[in-house]
Specification:
CATH topology: 2,3-Dihydroxybiphenyl 1,2-Dioxygenase, domain 1
Strand content: 25-35%
Bound molecules: fe (ii) ion
Distance between the termini: 42 Å
CATH superfamily: 2,3-Dihydroxybiphenyl 1,2-Dioxygenase, domain 1
Number of domains: 1
CATH architecture: Roll
Helix content: 10-25%
Length: about 260
């Protein structure tokens, strides 16, 4: 069944699909954890190879009608909100971004499967793919560097969702993420609330880059700061149209990006 969300984006709902056998699980590395020595007379040699993707983890979409879109996804797909973000100083105007997860009852689900973010344009921002562990993620990044891909931001650990992340742009500017060790929630947790700030996106790792924030024209990872000429055009159009992106929201984006 194909639905259309309030942004005009087609959403294909598939049920009772034919399940294929999973790929063979990688053999976990054996770690000497602090003083706990379990690997003796054996070298640590994780393979330096392209990261084997285990599954799609989440998709992040920007919308000019965040609240209407969120309501639509909550109603039609039964998603749960894991975390809300609001612009600094605009708590009373409500959230502008949320990390939404699937309701699988007592079965744990990714902290976010769909992220919705208010912005001046309806567009894809990034999608994220799970890999087995940090070594897989880092070695996969070395491979992409060798191939001339551009690291947008990473390696670091997120706050909301807690994933170890590594963001990459392909030669066309398409943004994807490798991640590992994300939070898994069942349906008993209430949503968290936090002001959006670029410094609050990571627990550790390099400072968030201007590329990830979208200052170079291509959409940012959360689409928060519209850069370059085409970004400015979309801002002007969004301010003129009837939607949720207004001047106060634009100021909120800029404040959040600087903090
Ligand atoms: Fe992500």
């Amino acid at each position: 069944m194909t639905l259309v969300d309030p942004n005009g984006m087609p959403v294909r709902v598939a049920t009772d699909t034919h399940e294929l056998p999973g790929l063979p699980a990688p053999t976990p590395l054996i770690f000497n954890f602090g003083h706990e020595v379990v690997r003796v007379n054996a070298m640590q040699r994780p393979p330096r190879q392209p990261a084997v993707v285990q599954r799609l983890g989440h998709v992040v979409v920007q919308t000019t009608r965040y609240r209407a879109s969120l309501d639509w996804y909550l109603e039609h797909l039964g998603l749960l909100v894991s975390d809300f973000s609001y612009y600094p100083g605009q708590r009373e105007r409500g959230p502008v971004l949320s990390f939404n997860r699937c309701d699988r009852g007592s079965t744990p689900a990714d902290h976010h499967t769909l992220v919705l973010s208010l912005g001046p344009e309806n567009r894809y921002l990034h999608s994220a793919y799970q890999v087995a562990d940090l070594d897989t993620l880092a070695a996969g990044g070395e491979y992409l560097l060798d191939k001339g891909y551009h690291r947008s931001w990473g390696i670091g650990r997120h706050v909301e969702g807690s994933q170890i992340f590594d963001y990459w742009r392909d030669p066309d500017g398409f943004l994807v993420e490798h991640f590992t060790d994300g939070d898994m929630f069942d349906n008993t947790l209430e949503p968290g609330w936090a002001p959006f700030s670029s410094s609050g996106l990571g627990q550790w790792g390099p400072k968030v880059t201007s590329d990830f924030l979208g200052l170079h024209g291509a959409a940012g990872g959360y689409g928060l700061v519209p850069g370059a000429i085409e970004g400015l055009v979309s801002v002007v159009n969004a301010l003129r149209d009837d939607n949720e992106f207004d001047v106060q929201r634009l100021l909120g984006v800029l404040k959040g990006a600087r903090s």
